[in-house]
Amino acid sequence: IAEEHAVLFACGMATSGFHPVCAIYSTFLQRAYDQIIHDVALQNLPILFCLDRAGLSPNDGATHHGLFDLSYLRCVPGVVIMAPADEDELADMIATGLAFKGPTFIRYPRGNSLGVGVKDTPTPIEIGQSNRLQAGRDIDIWAIGSMVVDAEKLAAQLREHDIDAGVVNARFVKPLDTKRLAKSAQSAKLIVSMEDQVITGGFGTSIMEALQEAAIKCPVHRIGWPDTFIDHGDSVSKIREENNLSSGKILESVISRIWQIKAGEEVDT
């Protein structure tokens, strides 16, 4: 196990005309944080980092949950951070990273793929461009990575409660699609962010920061892992239930927030 060496070795290749792919578990890339900042980002080297086991990794325990990478990478200048919703989008993001002349990061979870068909030739994605999946009048759900599927399920559940919800696959955490976000915040009563990551400093936080910088007042309800270390568990569903992240608990929290807004009892998340 030599993550620091792996990152520095990739730097050497990048300075010699290559565009290396450096594949490391999300949680273990933390060991090479100094190299990411001082050797990769500071020199703006073209390296594609593939972060396996990003998000919850239940059977591996607390040391292997990749729940912090969005937070610790977002603050690094000049990097691009992506998360695919399915295996076809992962292929497109690999093509995107290899075409970008700088450091890029793709995070994806442990587990089986969704069974989505993969194109013969991947198509690079415009940097920072999100993808609207559904339109909605009442709230807009902004999801990243594996949580896009959960966002679509949540939207369907909300419709059963007469709440019209839109869904956006953000695709990029950095740079964030601030143009679409601004339009979303100006029309929706609430923005819900969903991420398989701790909410502290993560994707939802980036949405709140972007809205504040744009002086747009729109409440944001963040859904993600709590500010604590998550223990080992037999399954994702069991650990989610224990941390109020089951589909039922998420639905309850969103409906409760909507009623707060309607009652004029808006509070900070």
Termini Cα gap: 39 Å
Number of strands: 10
Strand content: 15-25%
**Strand line-up of the largest beta sheet:** 1-2-4-3-8
| Sheet of most strands | 5 strands, mixed
Low-confidence stretches: none
Mean pLDDT: 94
The computed structural class is alpha/beta
Number of helices: 9
Helical content band: 25-40%
- CA-based gyration radius: 18 Å
Indicate the overall shape: globular
- The helix/strand order is HEHEHEHEEEHEEHEHEHH
List the helices and strands and how they pair.
Layout (H helix, E strand, L loop, with lengths): L2 H13 L5 E5 L7 H9 L6 E5 L16 H6 L5 E3 L4 H13 L4 E4 L23 E4 L4 E5 L3 H13 L5 E5 L2 E3 L3 H10 L2 E9 L4 H11 L6 E6 L10 H7 L4 H16 L7
Parallel strand pairs: 1-2, 2-4, 3-4, 6-7, 6-9, 9-10
Antiparallel strand pairs: 3-8, 5-7
Description:
- The chain is an alpha/beta fold and 269 residues long.
- 36% of the residues lie in helices and 18% in strands.
- It contains nine helices and ten strands.
- The protein has a five-stranded mixed beta sheet.
- Strand 9 (190-198), helix 7 and strand 10 (220-225) form a beta-alpha-beta unit.
- The mean pLDDT is 94.
Features:
269 residues; alpha/beta; 5-stranded mixed sheet; globular
Give a quick summary of the entry.
The chain has nine helices and ten strands. It has 269 residues and is an alpha/beta fold.
